[in-house]
Structures are given as structure tokens and as C-alpha cells.
Amino acid sequence: KMVTRASWTTLLTEFVIITACIHNAIYIAQWYTYKKKKETFDDQTKNEKRN
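The structure assignment produced for this chain is given below.
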């Protein structure tokens, strides 16, 4: 019984770590695209002001 419980805990821990990694990756990707969009938007605004 102890072995199954230990492996179950290990699986759970791995699952949590993997989920956290995926969440981080998604968050970073969203932040990166947001940053890129904001930069292009700022550039457009600057160009419009110049004109």
C-alpha cells in the first residue's frame, strides 16, 4: 500500500509541476504577444503624430 501511495503522490507532484509549466508558458506567450502588439501600436501612434 505504501508503494502505490508513494507513486500516486509522485504522479500528482509531476502533474502539478507539468501543469504549472504549461501555465507559465501560456502566460509568457500571452505577455510576449501583448508586448509586441503594444510596441507596434505605439509605433503607429508615433508615426501618426509625426504626420
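Interim note for the steering committee: The mean pLDDT is 87. The chain has one domain: 1-51.
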